[in-house]
Structures are given as C-alpha cells and as structure tokens.
Specification:
Elements: E1 2-9, H1 19-34, E2 40-45, E3 48-53, H2 60-67, E4 73-82, H3 86-96, H4 98-103, E5 106-113, H5 122-136, E6 141-142, E7 149-156, E8 159-163, E9 167-171, E10 180-184, H6 190-200, E11 204-211, H7 218-235, E12 238-244, H8 246-255, H9 261-279, E13 285-286, H10 299-306, E14 313-314, H11 322-331, H12 335-338, H13 345-348, H14 360-367, H15 372-381, E15 384-388
Helix pairs in contact: 3-5, 6-7, 8-9, 9-10, 9-15
This protein binds adenosine-5'-triphosphate (ATP) and magnesium ion.
Length: 397
C-alpha cells in the first residue's frame, strides 16, 4: 500500500503575492526536517503540501512527529493513495482504516472531488463507500454530526487519497519568512518561551546568553544550550553567543548606586546583544520580559532598558501571566530544564532593594561612572559562539 503525508498550510495560505515564496520556504523547511528519515518528494497543490516517500518502508509515524514541530503547518494527515476507481478505493479504505473502524462505534464518510472528471459526485462517493464500510463493519452506525471517525476520500488530479484523523500542526509562519532577531536567552522559564513565540511567527533566531563565571557555573551554560536545543527542534540549528559578563557586573557593583545596578546591567546587556545582532544581520532583539514580573520589569524600568537599544525590542510575553507562560514552556519541553537550580548572572548580582521606578536621567548619570564603551567592546570581543542542534544532550556527570 502506498502512503503519503498531506500537510495543510496554515496562515500562509492567505498571504497574497508572498504566498509562493512562503510555500517554497515551507517546503524547504519540511525537506530539512525530514532529511534524516529518507528521500521524499514534496510538492504544493491547492493550499496543501504532498509528501511522498520515494522508497519502501518509510516511517510515516516518525515523519508526522517531526512535522509537528515545523511552523507554517495547520494540520497533518497520513493518507493511503490509489487509482481513482471505487472498486479499488473501497477495499483499500476498509483495510487502511481497519483498526480505527473496529474501535469506533459511529462513522461518517466525506467525499471531496476536485477532479470533476470523476464519474461519481461527492454525495455518491459517500453513499457507496458508506454502504461498503457498513457491510464490512456491521457494528458501526452512521453519525453525521459527531462521528467517532470521519473517513475522507479526496479525488484529486493525481489520484485518490483516503484518510481519517488530521493531527494538529505547530501553526504559525515558516521559519525564515519574517527576518532575523537576537533573543536574550537566560536559563529561566520566560526567555525560551519568548524565543519559541517569535520563531513561530517566522522569525529566524540567534541567541545571546550572558554568563558570569566563576559565579555562574559551566552547568548553567550547558542548561542554556539544552534550552536552545528544544527551540532548535522547531527552528533548525541555532547559533548561541555566550558573553562573559562578570567584569561588567563587578564594575557596576563597584561604581554605581546599588539600587540602579539591575537596570544598568540590563542596559549593558541590551547594548552587547545589539552588537551581536548587527554582526549576525539580525534587526531586532527579543526578551522574555513581562510587565511587573520583577523589579527590572516595571514599566519604568523597561523604559530605561529600551532607551539603551537602537533596535526594536520584541517582548512577546509582555502581557502574559506567569501561569500562561509556564503552560507554553511545558508544551515545548523547556520547563523541566528551566527549573533546574543553576544560578543565573542576574541572581548572583541582585541588589537587595532594586529601584522599581528608575528615572532615565539618573540612570544615565550613574552610567557615566563606568567606561561603558570599553567594557562593552571587551565583552563583545571575547564572546564565544556555538551552534546548537536539537540533538544537544547534556548528562550530569
Ligand atoms: P527568564 O525566566 O527568561 O530568565 P526572568 O523572569 O528571570 O526571565 P530577568 O532575569 O529579569 O527575568 O530577565 C528578563 C529577560 O532578560 C529574560 O527573559 C531574558 O530575555 C533577558 N536575560 C536575563 N538574564 C539573562 C542572561 N543571563 N542572558 C541572556 N539574557 C538574559
Ligand atoms: Mg532570568
């Protein structure tokens, strides 16, 4: 039996003149995502993508799992393919969907005929196949409103396709169709979720992490690699830039007012991240901030942080509650990693009473006590780069 995978395009189906290039990008992303499983032919037709394995023994189950992390896909269906002949379609439908039909109590047949040359109209396809399946599985009854299983037969130009359940896709827009941004990735819960959300809208990401050795450990850095590997399952391999931040934090602690420490550190992070972004042809920054979550994320503090960046700063979590963020982090598999108890540079140098309503003029005055440019340049020039793939594994020794 020949089986293929039908992918239903998501929102990109609506994209007018950009549609062809978006679809081409989605096909490329799909090809890349499926490459470890063997050769497939991929083609677009009627706001769907057809994936046809070229060899025998292709693992369609594994392919579907991998496709569920490709953005730009609304739904995924495995389908049996045969010639456009009811005498072939009917027994194949019974055989292909046997397990599901045995388990179901009620069913419904849906016929779709886009090849108008096919002699039966859609209602006739339904009636014939429905009758046939009732004979094969006498325990079944028809329920057109809420059937346990819907058997769909599509008569298309290239053949007949038989399928049942459609699985949900990841939604969003194909990665790489919306420009590139640099995400400030800490080891916490929020920033990986922020990265996921922007990637879902088609943005390609590079990640920037600030580490403060020896106050933060190698394990904390590996944790960030592992977090990024979960995002890489959606985006493909991603670059991680690790910036040594100790010297800056020590200088801020030594020279600036303690209650302004947090906001100044964050401003310096922004400026360094922006340098990395420019070097990597990225045109925006992404953070996991949410209004009011901590002292550095009050509206006043965010205004001061924003003023340090010349690029737009995207904050996809800005209006979300922690519980909502946690829910997403669980579904993308980052939560369990994020809660591992390794220290972050921000927790190491947290002032006891950070200012919740910092004034930009005061912040700038405090910053003048530092040689910001030199500090930024030094941290930037000693930044380490790694490429993280979804296979990144870290075993605690
Ligand atoms: P998260 O859960 O993402 O760590 P948080 O609630 O702990 O967020 P903060 O520590 O104030 O909040 O950080 C706010 C944002 O600043 C983070 O979401 C992240 O984008 C960025 N950030 C904080 N610390 C770092 C770091 N060490 N490296 C890179 N980015 C960081
Ligand atoms: Mg954090």
């Amino acid at each position: 039996m020949k089986e293929i995978i039908l992918v239903k395009n998501g929102e990109l189906a609506l994209k007018g003149l950009n549609r062809a290039s978006f679809e081409a990008r989605l096909r490329r992303n799909i090809k890349h995502r499926l490459s470890p499983l063997g050769e497939v032919n991929i083609r677009s037709a009627q706001s769907a993508i057809f994936i046809e394995p070229t060899g025998e023994e292709y693992d369609c189950g594994k392919a579907v799992k991998r496709l569920q992390t490709v953005f730009g896909i609304a739904g995924i269906t495995r389908a049996a393919v045969c010639e456009k002949n009811m005498q072939v379609i009917m027994p194949l439908a019974a055989e292909y969907l046997e397990t599901m039909l045995k388990e179901a109590k009620t069913f419904k047949v849906e016929g779709k005929r886009s090849d108008k040359g096919f002699p039966l109209k859609s209602p006739e396809i339904c009636a014939e196949l429905g009758g046939y399946l009732l004979k094969c599985f006498p325990h079944l009854t028809v329920d057109v409103r809420r059937p346990d299983i819907q058997v769909t037969v599509e008569i298309r130009d290239f053949g007949a396709y038989i399928h049942a359940a459609q699985l949900p896709g990841a939604g969003g827009m194909p990665c790489g169709t919306a420009g590139r941004a640099a995400v400030l990735l800490s080891g916490g819960i929020d920033s990986p979720v922020a990265a996921y959300m922007m990637a879902k809208r088609g943005i390609e990401l590079v990640a920037v992490h600030f580490a403060s050795p020896p106050f933060t450990s190698l394990r904390a850095e590996l944790k960030v690699c592992e977090l990024l590997s979960k995002i890489a399952a959606y985006t493909g391999p991603a670059a991680l830039f690790t910036v040594p931040f100790t010297e800056i934090q020590q200088a801020v602690e030594k020279h600036c007012r303690e209650d302004y420490g947090t906001v100044i550190n964050r401003r310096l992070m922004m400026r360094i991240a922006e340098k990395v972004a420019r070097e990597q042809n990225a045109s925006a920054l992404v953070t996991g901030e949410s209004v009011g979550q901590v002292a550095s994320q009050t509206m006043h503090a965010l205004i001061c942080t924003d003023a340090a960046a010349d690029m737009p700063v995207f904050r996809p979590l800005i209006g979300m509650d922690k519980e909502e963020i946690i829910k997403i982090s669980r579904t993308i598999g980052t939560f369990d990693i994020s809660v591992l108890p390794y220290e972050d540079c921000c927790t190491v140098f947290t002032p006891k009473h950070p200012r919740t309503k910092p004034r930009l003029a005061d912040v700038l005055r405090e910053e003048e006590k530092l040689s910001c440019e030199a500090l930024i340049q030094k941290a930037f020039s000693t930044t380490d780069k790694k490429i993280i793939t979804e296979d990144f594994l870290y075993y605690e020794g």
